[in-house]
Amino acid sequence: MEPIEGKLESLGKVLREALAAERSEGDDLLQARASFLRDFSRHHAPSSTLDVPARRRARWLSLALAASLGAALTGMWLWPRSVSFQVGESRPGRLGAVIESVTGHATSLRFSEGSRLLLHEGARMRVLSVGSDGARVLVENGILDVSVAALKTRKTRWEFEAGPYLVTVTGTKFRMAFYSQSRTLSLSTQEGQVVVSGACQKTPKKISAGESVVLSCSTEEDLLPPSEVTQDKNV
Predict the structure, then answer these.
(1) Which residues contact 30 (CB under 8 A, 6 or more apart)?
(2) Residue 95 has what DSSP assignment?
(3) In the predicted model, is pLDDT for residue 47 greater than 60?
(4) pLDDT at 109
(5) Which of 17, 112, 114, 121 gives 149 a disulfide partner, CB atoms 3.0 to 4.6 angstroms apart?
(6) pTM of the model
(7) Is 91 strand, coil or helix?
(8) Average of pLDDT values for 113-118?
(9) Euclidean distance between CA atoms 81 and 98, whole angstroms
(10) Which ranges of the chain does DSSP label H, i.e. alpha helix?
(11) Can you tell me the distance from the alpha carbon of 14 to that of 196, in angstroms, rounded to the nearest whole number?
(12) 3-class DSSP state of 35
């Protein structure tokens, strides 16, 4: 009969072999599980972790859209706006409305880009239209002092209709007087240059700084010193 010590030793050997086999199988199982998880992650991972070029394209697209929006807003802000004007100290001007000076008082017009008009007593006019570079004015009768502001970023263009005459201005100071009954225009330029056309003139006439002119379809035009034109306008 086998001693008890031998039986115990045999039993211990069997247990050790069983445990070793179980550990080997466990290691193989763990390795297989890790390999499966790696393959699954590689094939089913979110696109944000794999598609790096796509993320870059999306980011550049967002930046491009933001830049385009900023440029559009800047363009809207910098887009030239039509000038506005007020009559007297605070009355907003209205296109086409009659503007005249009351007895004993001159009436001023202030435009948003810096130009100024001054109607002498008895004068009457209308602002027909405005744009980003100036305005079109109808002088119905009387004396009008004009100071057109020169713009830094673009050319100015002002037009003054007076009966059959058209005075075109690009930035200057001058005085004009139109007498509706005799259809006579007198004009004296202080700064810059104006161009007078229409009426019975064959070609437009330029009036430079220091020059004055009286135009009438019934008489020849005369170049006069500024003092004589001033006296004529005060008659």
Answers:
(1) none
(2) T
(3) no
(4) 96
(5) 114
(6) 0.60
(7) strand
(8) 93
(9) 24
(10) 4-44, 47-50, 52-78, 226-233
(11) 125
(12) helix
Residues 208-234: pLDDT tens digits? 999 999 988 764 444 443 344 444 444
Q: Which residues contact 107 (CB under 8 A, 6 or more apart)?
A: 87, 88, 99, 100, 101, 118, 119, 123
Q: Which one-letter amino acid corresponds to residue 211?
A: E
Instruction: Provide the terminal-to-terminal Cα distance of the chain, rounded to the nearest Å.
Output: 159
C-alpha closest to that of 163 among 211, 195, 120, 200? 200
Q: Which residues pair with 165 in a beta bridge?
A: 162, 198
The CA distances from residue 4 to 17, 18, 71, 216, in Å, are 20, 21, 97, 150
Closest CA to 147 of 95, 108, 91: 108
Which tens digit of pLDDT belongs to each residue from 65-86? 666 665 554 544 445 688 999 9
Residue 10 amino acid letter: S
Tokens of 155: 């050319």
Residue with the larger pLDDT of the pair 107 and 52: 107
Nearest to 147 by CA among 158, 161, 131: 158
**DSSP notation for 175-234:** EEEEETTTTEEEEEEEESEEEEEETT-SS-EEEETT-EEEEETTEEEEEE-HHHHHHHHT
DSSP secondary structure letter of residue 8: H
How would you class 34 by CB atoms within 10 Å of its CB: exposed for 0-12, middle for 13-18, buried for 19 or more? exposed
- Bridge partners of 169? 158, 194
Nearest in space to 114 (alpha carbons), one of 73, 153, 166, 78 = 153
Question: Is residue 204 pLDDT above 60, yes or no?
Answer: yes
